[in-house]
Write a structure and sequence with these properties.
This protein is mainly β. It has a domain of 119 residues: Lipocalin (Beta Barrel). It contains one helix and 13 strands, in the order E-H-E-E-E-E-E-E-E-E-E-E-E-E. Strands 1-2-3-4-5 form a five-stranded antiparallel beta sheet, with no helix packed on it. A hairpin with a 7-residue loop joins strand 4 and strand 5. The longest helix has 4 residues. The protein is globular. The N and C termini lie far apart (44 Å).
Length: 171
Amino acid sequence: MKIKECRLFGIAILLLLMIGTCTCAASEGEVDIRLIGNYSQGSGEIDAFNGYAYISDYNHLYIVDVSDSSDPNLTSSSSYNAYSTAVLSDDYIYMADPLVDGLRVLDISNKSNPNTTSTLGGYTYSYPNSKINIEAQDTSVFLRDRFGINVINVSDPTHPSAVYTIGTSSH
């Protein structure tokens, strides 16, 4: 079974076990996994898209070129407080950012120089060391913290807007 896209919360050194040419042969309950390369900077959430890996580790966002999976190269490192990331296209990355208690949108069309396009605050409440999950699909980003889920419309990444909130309790 070929793995097309994987997510892992853990150590970034395992990055290349999860993307590109990593294969898992599931026969008689055995799994064949081989390390084909590694990148040892940072740990946290990993999202891969079109030959690049995006690694967030609470204090930084690393963009790593993994087009040659045996020789990953750091393209850029930014000191954004990126709790977690979700990639929607080649041009934008969406981050759950505790500094704005919500969403930060980065223009990554120039992978070596990502820039903040917009922020939308007030949609998460972060406690120290708490996790804010983020997922992206089509023109929506979903932020989840311990109080609920927020749906954000990002059809225009320069002007994200809140669509709906599903609360589990108030903060």
